[in-house]
Specification:
By secondary structure, the chain is α+β, with helices and mostly antiparallel strands. About 35% of the residues lie in helices and about 25% in strands.
Length: about 300
């Protein structure tokens, strides 16, 4: 079977000065996953490796460098889905786990499918994952933004997306503009498809808020016989239309992956006021689809026999 992989680094109004770091981060993540696939490794291992790279890169809103809640803390969500077995593992509201995607992979092995908060962190300890201090996940950029927001001085931040429709979007989220969920889909030589994603959520969110990222069918979905989809953007709107599952259903109806991605995003914008985001798709034949209705979406992909392709 041909191998293939696609990653994304978030769909939002990425400022000009952040384009290059986003492209570099996506390229590095793709290279990490591709090395595993090329060596005969599994799509699951490739997705975990790629997402870990982006969680460790402070340019993205995932892992280290994630946005802060209204309480000034980091809370992380992640998920992974195996397209052959349809098993999934999801985690949410993590405060002391540096790489949520690795914990999600452990959850995928059972006995549960979705763990949150303190219980998820206790499970991390039980499977040998180290805990960190929440402060270790916070970078200066996000602390400065939070302090400005806290005292009411954050009126406009470079990167705010006023072109995507914000009628229903929380003001604190679109003021900053970032929706830097990261994600990956991989196809291995055994023919399995795996989808994975990770996020810190939206800026200044209520503590305990969970968006689309860890919700199967919303933020991600994988079926090894049909295709996989991973979404990014304003989570509340993505959840309302179950965007990832909707994209895969379009593949089931016979649409090519690029058409499926474009139609899924058009549906998001049409059905939800202020609905904006992006979607990446990978099929069992290694075909790629990607679409977004924000100013930019960072991505990188590679198919068997070809060179890496990236954009923002």
């Amino acid at each position: 079977m041909p191998i293939a992989m696609i990653v994304h680094g978030g769909a939002w109004a990425i400022p000009d000065e952040q384009v290059e770091p986003h492209l570099t981060g996506c390229q590095t993540a793709l290279a990490a996953g591709w090395a595993i696939l090329a060596a005969g490794g599994t799509a699951l291992a490739a997705c975990e490796a790629a997402v870990r790279v982006m969680e460790d890169d402070p340019v993205f809103d995932a892992g280290t460098g994630a946005v802060l809640t209204s309480a000034g803390t980091v809370e992380l969500d992640a998920a992974v889905m195996d397209g052959h077995s349809l098993r999934y593992g999801a985690v949410a509201n993590l405060r002391r786990v540096r790489n949520p995607i690795t914990l999600a992979r452990h959850v995928l092995d059972g006995p549960s499918t979705f763990l949150a908060g303190e219980g998820a962190e206790q499970f991390a300890v039980s499977v040998g994952l180290p805990l960190c201090a929440n402060a270790d996940l916070i970078v200066v950029r996000e602390r400065v933004l939070w302090e400005a927001w806290r005292v009411g001085q954050l009126s406009e931040v470079p990167g705010g997306d006023s072109s995507a429709g914000e009628q229903d979007q929380p003001p604190s989220a679109h003021a900053v503009g970032g929706h830097d969920t990261v994600g990956a889909i991989a196809l291995d030589e055994a023919g399995n498809l795996v989808a994975a994603n990770s996020t810190g959520g939206t800026s200044f969110k209520l503590p305990g808020r969970i968006g689309d990222t860890p919700m199967v069918g919303c933020g991600l979905y994988a079926d090894a016989y049909v295709g996989g989809a991973v979404c990014t953007g304003w989570g509340e709107s993505i959840v309302r239309v179950a965007l990832a599952r909707r994209a895969v259903e379009l593949l089931e109806r016979g649409l090519p992956p690029q058409s499926a991605a474009e139609l899924a995003i058009r549906t998001l914008a049409r059905r939800v006021s202020g609905g904006h985001g992006g979607c990446i798709i990978l099929t069992p034949g290694g075909r790629i689809g990607l679409a977004w209705n924000t100013r930019r979406m960072a991505y990188a992909y590679r198919q068997a026999g070809g060179e890496p392709i990236w954009g923002c």
